[in-house]
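[retry 2/3] Sugar phosphate isomerase/epimerase: previous attempt timed out, resubmitting with same input.
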Amino acid sequence: MKLGFISAILDQMSFEEMIDTAAGLGFSCVEVACWPRGKAERRYAGVSHIDVGALTDKEAGRILDYCKARRVEISSLAYYPNTMDGNPEKRAANIAHLKQVIAASHRLGVNLVTTFVGRDQTKTVEENLELFQEIWPPIVQEAEALGVRIAIENCPMLFGPDQWPGGQNLASTPAIWRKLFQIIPSPNFGLNYDPSHFVWQMMDYIAPLYEFKNRIFHVHFKDIKLLPDRLREVGTMAYPLEYMVPKLPGLGDVDWGNYVSALTDIGYNGYACIEIEDKAFEGSREGVLNSLKISKRYMEQFVI
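[retry 2/3] Sugar phosphate isomerase/epimerase: success.
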């Protein structure tokens, strides 16, 4: 496996500074954030280390040369929007940009995009499956034509009142994955597997690795710490951030030895990117860099 991180945490850096940081810290790869230029709608979003809308062949060549010189690979181009937003204008804009990310991934020879399928948070699962069947086959067909794979992260995107009641990403459980893969059986449509989201949903994050081994294109290393005292007070029907907090790998409840062991069982040898969302390390450049150093040092017990 190749150890890297999601570039969104280095939002104040240029592409070159971000790659230099990755190289200086000894990372093998980076999942490069490619949101549209402009204001972020939520934390850890809105970061644009590659402007896919303005990417020319010349600029793509320069980017690849810069990475090669520093021995840092691009694991994927990352854009996590809601492509099934209940607002038709937002939905259309998100889909249009996702298609630009797909085209840019092809132009760069990366040929992998990490994203969400989205969800209309006001509709039922069944209604959203119908919406998925309408929206997503053309997106995947476009990716197939370019030889690009799409890896869907399993985060429910349900954390607080603004995402209530259904959350903003349908692809959050194995039961739903089976339905999505029935609708789109394409080998170019798979998973960006993050165990932390199963922890707060009280789910098994090991068994699905074996069932979906051929669908796992990319993995995340992020941890979640459950707060039992809070959970007893508010229950699982509360806003999830009332009873859990994102943490650096090793500072939460994921059994990383068991997780990586299962990845080696299924023969996964692709990209594994640390995702930093631990507020304890925000607020300063030093804190952010320390979060990457600590996470890398911990995960190198299992992945080098």
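[retry 2/3] Sugar phosphate isomerase/epimerase: The chain has ten helices and ten strands.
[retry 2/3] clearing retry counter.
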